[in-house]
TrEMBL record:
InterPro entries: Acyl_CoA_acyltransferase (IPR016181), Bact_Acetyltransf (IPR050832), GNAT_dom (IPR000182). Keywords: Acyltransferase, Transferase. This is GNAT family N-acetyltransferase. It holds the Pfam family Acetyltransf_1. Residues 8-155 form the N-acetyltransferase domain. GO terms for molecular function: acyltransferase activity. Its EC number is 2.3.-.-. It comes from the Bacteria. The keyword Transferase applies.
């Protein structure tokens, strides 16, 4: 293994990453949302659901790798940093900071301000975003996708949703 293999690398997601992203997203979602979202949403957050939700987001997803292994990802939907997840063993290593900064840069190409939603009870995430310069600006009833309206809707379209009490965080990105 070279020194480069041990360093954090960010790159655009590829179709071959879909399974690793789905598994990481499923585990990370359960870890960060258990007890913080309506019970109804949990039946729509099984591994099969994440496998279905990943492919439409690949074009706006950046992945992080360490030693060639996928350890995190960030997905952007227009001006929203929609998803940021890091594998448990990679937390505290700077991966989340790098991914969030990549998401901010993707939003900054078209928008002045980025936003994201955080479940009210997810204090670990809320502390992280505040530390990274994001401001908690308002309560937000976030329409979490369920995909129950047929094919999975485009990210953020709201078809087949469960409302999740969240906080809206914003950051000026350009």
């Amino acid at each position: 293994m070279t020194d480069d293999d041990r360093e954090l690398a960010l790159r655009a997601a590829h179709a071959q990453d879909a399974e690793a992203i789905a598994v990481l997203w499923c585990h990370g979602w359960l870890d960060g949302h258990a007890g913080h979202v309506p019970d109804e949403l949990h039946r729509h957050r099984q591994l099969a659901d994440f496998r279905r939700r990943v492919p439409p987001r690949l074009a706006t997803t950046t992945v992080a790798t360490l030693a060639g292994r996928l350890v995190g990802f960030v997905t952007v939907a227009r001006d929203e940093v929609e998803q940021v997840y890091v594998a448990g063993p990679a937390r505290g290593t700077g991966v989340a900071d790098a991914l969030l900064a990549a998401g901010e840069r993707m939003v900054a190409v078209r928008f002045d301000t980025a936003w994201l939603a955080v479940a009210v009870g997810n204090t670990r995430a809320r502390r992280f975003y505040a530390r990274c310069g994001w401001r908690d600006v308002a309560p937000l009833d976030y329409p979490a996708e369920t995909g129950t309206g047929g094919d999975d809707p485009a990210p953020g379209s709201g078809t087949g949703t469960v409302i999740v009490p969240c906080r809206r965080y914003e950051k000026r990105v350009r």
